[in-house]
Design a protein that fits this description.
The structure is a homodimer. By secondary structure, the first copy, chain A, is mainly alpha-helical. Helix content of chain A is 75%, strand content 0%. The first copy, chain A, is elongated, with a radius of gyration of 19 Å. Chain A binds chain B through residues 26-28, 110, 113-114, 116-121, 126, 129-130, 133-134, 158, 161, 164-165, 167-176, 178-182, 186-187, 189-190, 193-194, 197, and chain B through 26-28, 110, 113-114, 116-121, 126, 129-130, 133-134, 158, 161, 164-165, 167-176, 178-182, 186-187, 189-190, 193-194, 197. Chain A binds a DNA duplex through helix 3.
DNA sequence: TGTATTATAATACGACGGTATGAAAAAGGA
DNA sequence: TCCTTTTTCATACCGTCGTATTATAATACA
């Protein structure tokens, strides 16, 4: 029997390389040869783990979708340890995690937007990217309901629509931050301002 | 003296072709040869009006930036003729115009996002795309101030931050609509819901 | 230790796409 | 009418990039 290599570990390693390149130079800059260099292997090896570039990109889309939601959830759970956390602090943590406020998240978001552009019109990819979105929306709606039960949020709010408003706003702020038409302080201020209005008088 | 042709008219004609293609197949689908076919001319002619593909794309970014804001403004002014229009109806019209609710606007937005992805990290392009954004933000802030003066909007609102929240939300809803993770009715409902909360009790 | 099978790598191929070139066509002015 | 300059077009060139091919190295099992 031959050499044993964890195939999926190699694929994740390559996916990380793709994400680094896409975050730095855009998805167009992710040529197979560059991916190989970034991953520290040869072009042939990359080909060994992905039959085609398309298959590789599909894998990366899936990989990204999983990890983004995972990281957001981690960010939301982080402040939970500090005593009893208000729902608004959860949501603020979530927003901070989602917004491209540092180099890493900027790269991640840029890669994400590149894939989003790629996915438009491709049902399979759109499904992968939309999955986490729907899941997150429900979580936020649940959180808002809980906030209302605990008296942290106004009773009159529509959880479903509030979830849509908040997540859309964060999404939009993210795009604007990446494009440089909005500065980070203002983005965070907008989120805090919005969350404040959700509190009872 | 030779044949006289309106140079800028030709360039706009080509730009329209590029936008149609980018809206239909993405910006990657806008090969020079395809642009020529879409514009109903030969590759050589396209080259005659643009020294390079890069120059062409820069022109299209500029062209798009001008026309998008122009169309949004037209959308905002449209309901103004009907008696005295509440500020909220202005803003709703603006949102409706900005959201990709039909094929035309979907194509326009897709092209816009493709160019946005292209522009990240290129200061010149970012400037072109950010210009209209800043202008629009100020207009919305002014509108909110006017709404407050007229008693249409709550007095406690921060016009600058409200402008940021509203425009970011519309931007985010637009992305989500394009990706198909949000349906048009819900997007409009979210906008209406949000605008409603801005009204006095 | 030998061998079979996988992993890694180097190189070659072929297509695609931006660019360059040169020629033909068109049209206003002498 | 002829000339000059612009416009239009066809075609050739050449680099790039995805893919295919082939060879070499590595390793688990007999």
């Amino acid at each position: 029997m031959p050499k044993q290599v964890d195939h999926d570990e190699r694929r994740r390693h390559i996916a990380e390389a793709v994400l680094r390149i896409a975050g730095r130079d855009g998805l167009d800059g992710a040529r197979l040869r560059d991916v190989a260099v970034e991953a520290g292997m040869s072009l042939g090896s990359v080909q060994h783990y992905f039959a085609s570039k398309d298959e590789m990109l599909r894998y990366v889309v899936h990989y990204l979708g999983e990890h983004v939601t995972e990281r957001i959830v981690a960010g939301m759970c982080a402040p939970a340890v500090a005593s009893v956390p208000p729902v608004r602090s959860f949501l603020l943590s979530m927003a901070s995690e989602m917004l491209p406020l540092d180099a890493r998240r900027r790269a991640e978001r840029r890669a994400g937007q590149a894939f989003t552009a790629l996915a438009v019109g491709v049902p399979e990819l759109m499904e992968d990217l939309g999955e986490g979105d729907r899941w997150l929306r429900e979580r936020v709606a649940e959180l808002i309901v809980r906030g209302q039960r605990d008296g942290e949020l106004r009773a009159g709010l529509d959880p479903r629509l509030e979830s849509a408003v908040l997540l859309s706003m964060i999404d939009g702020l993210g795009s604007e931050l990446l494009l440089g038409v909005r500065d980070p302080e203002e983005a965070l201020a907008a989120v805090r301002y919005h969350l404040n209005r959700l509190a009872p008088d």
